[in-house]
Amino acid sequence: CPSSSGKPNHADILLVNLQYVSEVEIINDRTETPPPLASLNVSKLANKARTEKEEKMSQAYAISAGVSLEGQQLFQTIHKTIKDCKWQEKNIVVMEEVVIAPPYQVENCKGKEGSALSHVRKIVEKHFRDVESQKVLQRSQAQQTQKDTSLSS
């Protein structure tokens, strides 16, 4: 497919897991020869697929372990900044140095005092500030919608 970013010499690649395909139906048969495929960096695509699979497996593990939605969201936030982040039962382990236990608040961050612990605590603080500001924004939008509805009635 042409690139959704609009960049020349780029293309969107769609991968389909054929294990989940039960039937293929040909809508029409093409007679013209398709344009040549752009060269692909197969190792880069394989690394991307492996990384995506690992992230999905991590999410699935968290859900199956009964981790709260807040814990899953915090894990995703930390993982955006620090890739060395994994689950250990219901605990989040960051850089093998910091452990965050449920209910995943700043005071639940444990580890050897130092820059790693300090950095993780800052990420956790910012995450919860952002979540709270998002809730406030949603409440104000809901109130505005309610006012607009009652004014138009």
List keywords for this structure.
LSM12 protein; AD; Lsm12-like; 48% helix; 153 residues; alpha+beta; four-stranded antiparallel beta sheet
Architecture overview:
- Helix content is about 50%, strand content about 10%.
- It is of the alpha+beta class and about 150 residues long.
- It has a domain at about 45-140.
- Strands 1-2-3-4 form a four-stranded antiparallel beta sheet, covered by helices on one side.
- The model has no long low-confidence stretch (mean pLDDT about 90).
Short description:
This protein has 153 residues and is α+β, with helices and mostly antiparallel strands. The protein has three helices and four strands, in the order H-H-E-E-E-E-H. It has helices at 42-64, 69-81, 115-152; strands at residues 85-88, 91-94, 98-100, 109-111.
